[in-house]
Structure formats: structure tokens, C-alpha cells
């Protein structure tokens, strides 16, 4: 069987034929080169408007990288014609295997993009002997195709989250669809300002925004403001994940502060290495950890009180009725305010300030699965971390859409992977 036969099976063109396939010695090893030519009597199409147009001249041959075979690079070799289009003037003809000035065939770009879902971009580049840039451009192509073809109707619930990226106080705003049967990343924006979220709503459109029933978010003021303005028909829910994150952060803060105090007083900071014991749910502790924890508890430190406060707060989420949940929360806040522990008092104040929005969680009970935003948050952080080389926002944005966007792909073509 000839390679030409295989090529005709996996990538056949209506108006072009494979003339021959050669092995070519190249500085980086052997290559397979498939020569293409127009099918006889076929008429060239203008690459701008797509209309059949008369030939003008022929340009020098160009190489287009195709999907590698047995570790051998494969190229299409073709001398593009220029056409004299009635509407657009003298233009290069349309070639069905590549767009614009790209040196990669679309099949190859989809191939790299699909691998980039499984491996890091660096690994894909290494495995297929190509550059990081080529992988990035391929992912970019897949993402823009997917985003142009994605279905955005019937979105009822969204979750808004922010993640840190790069060093210092750099944030990305992420918006997810969190409907029961459809969960995906919808949008990524730089920073976490009023303007960032406004840009999301502008992209999303006012019609779709009005149709939203639920918006999950953190207590971050700029977000709350924009949600109230742009999605006022929706119930704004301050979700469990974000509230617990605030409480955990407060606990961490005081622990660090205490360890520092202990050290200045000449004591061994018992809490530095045992932070995780306090953060763990009691039912998940092993026997050994439990005895360590009880040893720790003997140190009657403020952390312990805070630990109990946090544990107690877990009961909050078990309530069914917003009324009783509210009563519980009020009591918890009063107790916390008396505890004289600053960071956690701050959380209590914040909860009081947003009492209504916090209790919306119970209004929407059953509609909202608590783990969705948290799950996405973890995956998004992992994507950013894995993408160690992503210095630019563009690259991080592409990686996030590619991994979490559940974007569609064209159907009907041969899948090389
Ligand atoms: Zn044209």
C-alpha cells in the first residue's frame, strides 16, 4: 500500500490531489513530503471571499506541517496560485488544509491541541519535536474555533471566582456555568475589578444576563456591585466554598500570629507544624493525629477556640430553613465577636454585613451543588501551575478555556488522535 492511499483515506480534498510522497533528507532527520497539485479542471477559489476566480500566477512552493507518522515529520508541499478575484483583486487561493499564512495544516493543529489537553504544552512540544509556540498557536486555534461555535442558550446559574496568578497580587476572574447538567468555564478576565466583571456581562449580553436565576460569588465588593446591577433578576448566593475559605484563612492568620508570639516569649511554636491538624475535619483524623491534636489542645491557645468556632460553623450548612439558619448565624457571630480574636471577628462582621446574601444559599437549596465552584477552582489552579511557562495573560487564558471550557470541536473529519 502506498502512503498516497493512506493520505487519500484520512485527508482527501475535492479540488486537490496528492501527486507523490517522497522521503527527504533534512538537517533534523528524514521527512515525508507529500506534493499536492490542483485537480485538473478545478477552479481556484479566492481566499478572501471564497468565490471561484481566474488564475493570475503561481507563487513559490510552501511547506505545511501535517500530522507526524512513526516519529517522522510530514509536510504538504504546494505552490499556491494567486487569483484575480472580481471583488477582492489579486489574492492567494483558498487551501482547504491551512488557514491564512499558517505553516501548519489544520489537521496538525487539532492533533497538537488534543494532545495539549492531556499533557503540558512543553511535553507536547517535546514529544512531537515541535516548538512551544506551535503548540500554543494550535491551542489558540482550537479555542477560538470552539468559542465561536459554542452554545450559550439556557444558562441559568453561574459562579464567579477569582484565582491568584503570577506573583504578588495578580488575579484572574473566572466565570463558570454551574447548572446541574452543564458545567464549564465560560469566561476569563484579567484582574478582579468592577471593570473586569462588567466586561463579562458585556460579552454575555443583556438578554442572557436577564435569564440568569442564580449567581454564586464571593463577598468581594466589586463583584457584588456588578451582579446587583447586571443580573438583578437572579438570586446572588454567597457560596459555601468562599465563606469557608474566609474562615480557614482567618484561622491560618491567627495561628501564624500566635506562633510568632510564642517564639518571642521563648516557647517552641507548637502550632507551626500542626496547622493541618486544625484544618482537618475531626472524622478524618487518624488515631495518632488525634492524640497529637489532644496534646495540642492542652495548650489552651486562642487557636483552639477558633478551631471550635470553625467546627461549629459547619453545622450552619446543615440547616434547611433560611430562618433557622439565620438564627444560628446570628448567635455564632455574637459569640465570635466576644472572642476577641481579630481575624475571625472580621469574618463575623463580613457575614453580618452580607446576612441576606449568605442566607440566599438556603433559598436556593437543592439547586446548587456546593462543590462545583470549589472543584473548578482547584482545576483552574492546577492548569495555571502546570502551565509554568505561561507568562502572558493570553497563554493562561487559552489554557484555561482549553482545559475547562468544554468547547466543541469540528465533526466529520478524520481524528488523528
Ligand atoms: Zn474574493
Low-confidence stretches: none
Outline type? elongated
Nearest-angstrom radius of gyration? 29 Å
Mean pLDDT: 86
Widest sheet, order of strands: 10-9-8-11-12
The SSE order reads HEEEEEEEHHHEEEHHEHEHHHHHHHHH
Percent of residues in β-strands:
15-25%
Summarize the structure in words.
Helix 3 crosses helix 4 (132-149), helix 5 runs parallel beside helix 7 and helix 12 (322-338) runs antiparallel to helix 14. This protein is of the alpha/beta class and 417 residues long. The chain has 16 helices and twelve strands. It folds into four domains: 1-100, no CATH class; 104-149; 157-239 and 368-404, Ribonuclease H-like superfamily/Ribonuclease H (Nucleotidyltransferase, domain 5, 2-Layer Sandwich), CATH 3.30.420; 240-363. Strand 1 and strand 2 (29-38) form a beta hairpin. It starts with a helix and ends in a 13-residue tail after the last helix. The longest helix is centred in the middle third of the chain and has 25 residues, at 240-264. Strands 10-9-8-11-12 form a five-stranded mixed beta sheet, with helices on both faces. It has helices at 3-10, 106-118, 121-127, 132-149, 194-204, 206-210, 221-230, 240-264, 275-279, 287-297, 302-313, 322-338, 342-353, 355-363, 371-386, 393-404; strands at residues 16-26, 29-38, 55-58, 62-69, 72-78, 81-85, 89-92, 157-164, 171-179, 182-190, 214-217, 235-238. Helix content is 46%, strand content 20%. The structure holds zinc ion (ZN). Zinc ion is lined by residues 46, 48-49, 51, 85, 87-88, 91. Zinc ion binds at residues 46, 48-49, 51, 85, 87-88, 91.
Amino acid at each position: 500500500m502506498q502512503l498516497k492511499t493512506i493520505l487519500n483515506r484520512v485527508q482527501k480534498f475535492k479540488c486537490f490531489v496528492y501527486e507523490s510522497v517522497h522521503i527527504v533528507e533534512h538537517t533534523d532527520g528524514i521527512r515525508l513530503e507529500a506534493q499536492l497539485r490542483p485537480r485538473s479542471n478545478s477552479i481556484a477559489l479566492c481566499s478572501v471571499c471564497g468565490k471561484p476566480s481566474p488564475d493570475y500566477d503561481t507563487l513559490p512552493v510552501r511547506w505545511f506541517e501535517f500530522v507526524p507518522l512513526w516519529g517522522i515529520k510530514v509536510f504538504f508541499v504546494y505552490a499556491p496560485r494567486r487569483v484575480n478575484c472580481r471583488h477582492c483583486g489579486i489574492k492567494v487561493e483558498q487551501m482547504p488544509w491551512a488557514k491564512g499564512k499558517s505553516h501548519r495544516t489544520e489537521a496538525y493543529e487539532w492533533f497538537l491541541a488534543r494532545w495539549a489537553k492531556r499533557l503540558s504544552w512543553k511535553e507536547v512540544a517535546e514529544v512531537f519535536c515541535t516548538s512551544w509556540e506551535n503548540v500554543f498557536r494550535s491551542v489558540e486555534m482550537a479555542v477560538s474555533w470552539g468559542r465561536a461555535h459554542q452554545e450559550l442558550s439556557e444558562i441559568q446559574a453561574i459562579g464567579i471566582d477569582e484565582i491568584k496568578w503570577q506573583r504578588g497580587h495578580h488575579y484572574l476572574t473566572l466565570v463558570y456555568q454551574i447548572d446541574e447538567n452543564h458545567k464549564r468555564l465560560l469566561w476569563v478576565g484579567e484582574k478582579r475589578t468592577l471593570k473586569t466583571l462588567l466586561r463579562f456581562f458585556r460579552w454575555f449580553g443583556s438578554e442572557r444576563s436577564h435569564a440568569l436565576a442564580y449567581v454564586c460569588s464571593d463577598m468581594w465588593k466589586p463583584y457584588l456591585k456588578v451582579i446587583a446591577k447586571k443580573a438583578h433578576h437572579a438570586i446572588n448566593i454567597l457560596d459555601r466554598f468562599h465563606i469557608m475559605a474566609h474562615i480557614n484563612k482567618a484561622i491560618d492568620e491567627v495561628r501564624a500570629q500566635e506562633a510568632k508570639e510564642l517564639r518571642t516569649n521563648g516557647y517552641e511554636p507548637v502550632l507551626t507544624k500542626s496547622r493541618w491538624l486544625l484544618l482537618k475535619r475531626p472524622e478524618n483524623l487518624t488515631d495518632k493525629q488525634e492524640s497529637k491534636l489532644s496534646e495540642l489542645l492542652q495548650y489552651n491557645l486562642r487557636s483552639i477556640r477558633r478551631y471550635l468556632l470553625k467546627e461549629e460553623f459547619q453545622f450552619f450548612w446543615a440547616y434547611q430553613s433560611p430562618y433557622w439558619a439565620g438564627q444560628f448565624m446570628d448567635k455564632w457571630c455574637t459569640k465570635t465577636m466576644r472572642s476577641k480574636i481579630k481575624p475571625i471577628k472580621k469574618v463575623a462582621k463580613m457575614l453580618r454585613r452580607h446576612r441576606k446574601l449568605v442566607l440566599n444559599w438556603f433559598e436556593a437549596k437543592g439547586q446548587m451543588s456546593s462543590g462545583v465552584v470549589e472543584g473548578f477552582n482547584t482545576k483552574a489552579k492546577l492548569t495555571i501551575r502546570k502551565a509554568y511557562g505561561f507568562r502572558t495573560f493570553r497563554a493562561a487564558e487559552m489554557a484555561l478555556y482549553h482545559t475547562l471550557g468544554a468547547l466543541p470541536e469540528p465533526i466529520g473529519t478524520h481524528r488523528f488522535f
